[in-house]
Amino acid sequence: MSRPRLTIGTYGEIWFLSTDSGKIEARAHYRDWDGKNRLVQARADTQASAERRLKQKLLDRSLFNVSPAHTLLTADSSFSELVDYWLNDLDLEGRISKTTRQLYERNMRKLVMPVFQGLTLREVGVARCDQFIKQLAKLSYNRAKQARVVMKLAFGLAVRHEVLPRNPMDNIARLKRPAHTPNALTPAQVNGVRAAILHWESGQSPSGPKPDGQLGGIVEVMLGTSARIGEVLAIRRCDVDVTSSVPSIRICGTIVSLKGEPTARQDHPKTAKSCRTVAIPSFTTEAVRKRLARMKDTSPEALLFSNRGGAPLTTANVRRQLRHVLGLAGITGVSPHMFRRTVATAVNEEANIELAAELLGHTDTRITVQHYIRRNEMVNPETAKLLDRVFARDE
């Protein structure tokens, strides 16, 4: 055995010895996460090669193999194991809603897992993640964005629990959002939608199930409140005030349909800050009064819109019914969320963006501008008068 040649920090000394096969073996003691010193060794044909291999082993151990005692993951664990570990951690934290939890799992299993499930964590680097997100973005910006979110969260957990030294998603190229102009209905188009629904609810259309008179009321409430479809379907009798001098509706819940569970009312909207009381216009007040008069359940908690048994309507069924009814009238491309953009655009044009954001329950007007306001291409006519004054012809 030769004398120690090198001391490298916390790894201790490296020493060398010859093996029966003629190889040179480099050895060093390494202090693991649990505080125990363990012997690490590497063999090669020469002393220099053995030393390089040992140093690489020590470096890999330092970077990847320090794991808390309760964490069974290592850098050699599969990506699938990390996903299961991450989902379990989300359940333990309990900070996100069940809807968001199911959305994260769906995005991870459908968008990411088919590509990464055969890899170990050690094999997933920045370049691989960067290429994956770029390729996915060619197909769909939204899918790429959703995949990026769940991957960053899962790898972030691996970093926090010291399974990986760094998050490979931190250094990928930024996604470029494609140009997008929010679409909204004009007043004439809104009246066309109303006419189509009225025609269907009057029983003049032979197609589809017998109308129950609720679709028209749902649309009028969306137009009068800017509420999301789930929020409208969650309105209860106690949330409605049509007897005051200023009729109003309180938006304080939403409808959720979780996998394996019955559709139910959630006691808060998309976010807690979205709770708000909205003064409603006369057309919405009239629709609500008609609906209240037809309701058999007079309890305060009774839903304004429900199925025959009083249970919540699903947002998917209402969307499907709206497409069917408007399709009969030759109207396409109208979704419940378009009414929300239509209301935001109207309020912005008649008043200002701050009022539109307040009505929608947004805390940041940039969200309202980017996603809900249809751009008005008409330049202020004052420019014509100004140019007439400056460049008028000499007679």
TrEMBL record:
Domain of life, source organism: Bacteria
Regions that span the bilayer: none
Alphabetical list of Gene3D superfamilies matching this protein: 1.10.150.130, Intergrase catalytic core
Sorted UniProt keywords: DNA integration, DNA recombination, DNA-binding
Signal sequence region: none
Keyword DNA damage: no
Alphabetical GO biological process terms: DNA integration; DNA recombination
Residues of the Tyr recombinase domain: 180-388
A Pfam family annotated for this UniProt entry: Phage_integrase
Record's keyword annotation contains NAD: no
InterPro entries: CB, DNA_brk_join_enz, Integrase-like_cat_sf, Integrase_catalytic, Integrase_recombinase_N, Integrase_SAM-like_N, Tyrosine_recombinase_XerCD
Domain Core-binding (CB) residues, every copy: 77-159
GO molecular function, one term: DNA binding
Family: Belongs to the 'phage' integrase family.
Protein's recorded name: Site-specific integrase
Organism in which the protein naturally occurs: Leucobacter triazinivorans
